[in-house]
Amino acid sequence: MTKHSDTKVAVLGLGAMGSALASAVVKAGYVTTVWNRSPRKADALGAEGAVVAATARDAVTASDVVVACLFDAASVREVLDPIADSLAGRTLVNVTTTSPEAAREFASWAAERGVVYLDGGIMAVPEMIGSPGSSVLYSGSEGAFERHRPLLDLWGESVYCGEDAGMASLYDLALLSGMYVMFAGFMHGAAMVAGAGVSAREFAGRSAAWLRAMTEGFAGFAEVIDGGDYTVPGQQSLEFSSLDDLLTASAAQGISTELLDAVQKLIQPQIDAGHGKEGFARVFESIKHPA
Ligand code: NDP
């Protein structure tokens, strides 16, 4: 591992997230050079002690590790393509959210230019950076991950997902899938009780406690899915998990049933195929092998 005093860091992109990442690096005592397309956004970092570069190239050439926290894959290309020569021999940590495919393309792009590449997926909002609960997923160069752990660990728990550069992004997007469906489930429940005069605030309190408790079930589902035997006794069966009552109650409230319909459409084919007495985890099969 490299001591932080040996490593000079550039942060390209000082939006909400880039600024939070850069600030943590500055506070930890690294020589930090920052650059942003709109220069004013660098003022606060400059006041904290970062060196403000006039161009992205200047930031890169002043540093060993270049952190890109831009908007999307296209903006990363726009910034880095013209200065690719300056990145040669350096490590690029790209924490901009991109698709797994785009991450792999960046890894190839980097390899062709002699740049060490680490892709990152940030599982936090800017306010969480450096606090417990923040984690960042990485994939790509394992050597870079190990060498720069002291730097990466400033932002949260650092998790290495493998040499395939697309893996961090895939993992990131998989976790976000769970988040969005859970958020939508909360909205559905809030809409169900709203007609009966229950405020979303009150429902949020109950929902959070309930969903937290329900996450305890993931491990059991995972064991069944990984074991591939959905007949293992002791599981909640698909038949027992029918959403009919939920759909009827939702319709009676006059609210959309689209979200529950979607879940029911994953349960029902398994029952129709004769698996009704098997575990709810079989929904995984409906998703993994769509008809
Ligand atoms: P912001 O919108 O706050 O900032 C976007 C940054 O990208 C700005 O620095 C902006 O520069 C720059 N940028 C956009 N387009 C270009 C371009 N064509 N050329 C040069 N610079 C450009 O976004 P965040 O900081 O919140 O997010 C940055 C990345 O982090 C995103 O990929 C996001 O998905 C990811 N992320 C963010 C999270 C969050 O909660 N905010 C959570 C997890 C990941 P300018 O100031 O000049 O517009």
From TrEMBL:
Query: Which keywords fit this entry according to its UniProt record?
Result: Oxidoreductase, Signal
Domain 6-phosphogluconate dehydrogenase NADP-binding: residue ranges:
8-161
- One Pfam family in the UniProt entry: NAD_binding_2
| InterPro entries in the cross-refs | 6PGD_dom2, 6PGDH_NADP-bd, HIBADH-related, HIBADH-related_NP60_sf, NAD(P)-bd_dom_sf, RedAm-like_C
The reply to whether Signal figures as a keyword in the UniProt entry is yes
Q: List the Gene Ontology MF annotations in alphabetical order.
A: NADP binding; oxidoreductase activity
Family, per the entry? Belongs to the HIBADH-related family.
Q: What is this protein called?
A: Beta-hydroxyacid dehydrogenase, 3-hydroxyisobutyrate dehydrogenase
